[in-house]
Amino acid sequence: MKAFDETPISRNGKSLILAHDHGLEHGPTAFEGVEDRLDPETIFEMATHDAVTALAVQKGLAETYYPSYEDDVALLAKCNGTSSLWEGEPYSPRTWSVESAVEIGADAIGYTVYPGTNREPEMIEEFRAVQERARDHGLPVAMWSYPRGQAIKEHRRPEVIAYAARIGLELGADIAKVKYPRSPEALSHAVDAAGDVRVVLSGGSKTSDYEFLSTVEAAMDAGAGGLAVGRNVWQRENPERILDALEQVIFEGASADGAL
Ligand code: FBP
């Protein structure tokens, strides 16, 4: 059974997950120009916006800051991660057990799989264990499904993204988070390939308000279940303004023009 629709991380089958694991994945350079956001408190505060259905963070941030926000923010516990200092074969080790995440109050589990990496067998086996523990606790699972490795020449090719979304279905995720395959048609195919798994888009590097919202509008029209977005929200000088607009586009079916 797909638990997604009944969980606090969705609203009417759609979600806007604020992703903030970049301090680990990209390092402090991700905060250039918005140095105040080096303080995680600013991001937890941001996540109290009505539009945000969950905040995805690593264990360290959750342990320290989540207790003050547990009444206002749903927690998506990102249970593996890797730094950009690592230059070996793509791999994302476990950083957080499901049990510990549950103790802190997790409402959902997030986990990266890199289909195509030479370490794919380990990653799939580790995902299996996490997915089964999440099921024991009745928690939905979001898979960051990011094909990479020597075999992947172009990780945003339509067939690669459709495969990534399908892998979410095959391995028992409730949400497959994928990169935008550059066209609504390609995304629509990925949504079909994912069956009843919700396909949400990552936001990518920061673009203009209009460009970003137009892509979100097109993605929603193509059947996406929402966004799991980081930089395109919290790297903005005024994140509240883009969250207001995203709320309209994702949950109310507004156009980018209308929302702006
Ligand atoms: P963005 O919306 O900022 O692209 O974040 C989505 C995300 O999946 C983050 O959760 C993660 O930190 C980052 O992208 C990893 O991206 P990559 O592995 O491509 O550097």
From TrEMBL:
Pfam family, one: DeoC
Annotated GO MF terms: fructose-bisphosphate aldolase activity
Class of this enzyme: lyase
Residues annotated as the enzyme's active site: Y146, K177
CDD domains: DhnA
Entry EC no(s): 4.1.2.13
Gene3D superfamilies xrefs: Aldolase class I (3.20.20.70)
The family this protein is said to belong to: Belongs to the DeoC/FbaB aldolase family.
Protein known as: fructose-bisphosphate aldolase
Taxonomic lineage: Archaea, Methanobacteriati, Methanobacteriota, Stenosarchaea group, Halobacteria
